[in-house]
Amino acid sequence: xxxxxxxxxxxxxxxxxxxxxxxxxxxxxxxxxxxxxxxxxxxxxxxxxxxxxxxxxxxxxxxxxxxxxxxxxxxxxxxxxxxxxxxxxxxxxxxxxxxxxxxxxxxxxxxxxxxxxxxxxxxxxxxxxxxxxxxxxxxxxxxxxxxxxxxxxxxxxxxxxxxxxxxxxxxxxxxxxxxxxxxxxxxxxxxxxxxxxxxxxxxxxxxxxxxxxxxxxxxxxxxxxxxxxxxxxxxxxxxxxxxxxxxxxxxxxxxxxxxxxxxxxxxxxxxxxxxxxxxxxxxxxxxxxxxxxxxxxxxxxxxxxxxxxxxxxxxxxxxxxxxxxxxxxxxxxxxxxxxxxxxxxxxxxxxxxxxxxxxxxxxxxxxxxxxxxxxxxxxxxxxxxxxxxxxxxxxxxxxxxxxxxxxxxxxxxxxxxxxxxxxxxxxxxxxxxxxxxxxxxxxxxxxxxxxxxxxxxx
Length: 458
Fold this sequence. Notes:
CATH class: Alpha Beta
Distance between the termini: 9 Å
Largest sheet: 11 strands, mixed
Strand content: 15-25%
Radius of gyration: 20 Å
Oligomer: single chain
Number of strands: 13
Strand order of the largest sheet: 1-3-2-4-6-5-12-13-9-7-8
Structural class: alpha/beta
CATH superfamily: Amidase signature (AS) domain
């Protein structure tokens, strides 16, 4: 059954629906693969075979019937409370229960086979810190897998499963997609199931999103999470906007070359055109996004609660939480004004172009023990460098997708990000599929060493 487990998400579902694959055997194969491969990457922090078998026994005849998936440690399950990758989360009361993503998966017939690791408190683009210990990148286990949806991405990249559910509040689906060589969709705000997340009542930035090998699988898993079909179309005559700013200029030569080549391939494949466009104040938008998501995280937090933090919470996690308490209200008010300004600018920009393209991250995955990147501007922390290209989508609510477009000289994935107007998630998937066709699916079918080696499994 391992050969079925190596198929894309949609082909696993089709094989089960046609009677060509036994879903019980597929579940056993997924559990065996997790047991064999997961110790090297720490992507899955908990499995629950009996609960998974109960899901399978009750699975309706939906689009993912019998297909194993992983869900991020950011939502409760009926038998397990989420931990958010942390020993303590002030202001949150975690308990087992049904969440929107769980119900969406259950109603589609999917089988949750495990919970994916995540960066502590969801507070980094690297994935190098967690109460479960860090997840690792299947392309090089000394490298960061990306955060904060580190475990779901590493699990999908290592082909423990063909699809996983992450969350993106400031790039947390797109960063691990980029580092792990996957396709990751950050939906239009409010479009994907989010209830059950402890910040769902207050957030205007965080969304649930799919992580899969390619766009077609993201379309299928996204449709399940959205509760509506994301119809496939053709990205013909695509108007591609490029911005000459730090997001496209302050990147490594390998990233620049791979992304510029991919943009040209996409233009040629769609019969479109590339237009240089201006998008002023990207630096202010980045700061505004950071301020607003920090302010959202203050719900239920008090100085007294911060002084009673679990001692197992990392010093960095403690510092992050206490920093939020120091934010002046005037700063978040100003950040909201920047959000309005950038939304208006994007509304005008998307009358001129269909998508905006720039690198997802400015450099390949850095080492776990030293998450620093060397860019033309100098040495920067990965978090400082990465957020510049991701924050705009969360600030304004537009959809965004990260697609693999190459490998570095060290064999690490490189990625391009495409952004579109609100509600045009389908267009991003169409564009991603066009790019896959243009490069012969070379990068979406590339396997990390951990998956390509095919370790012996039960």
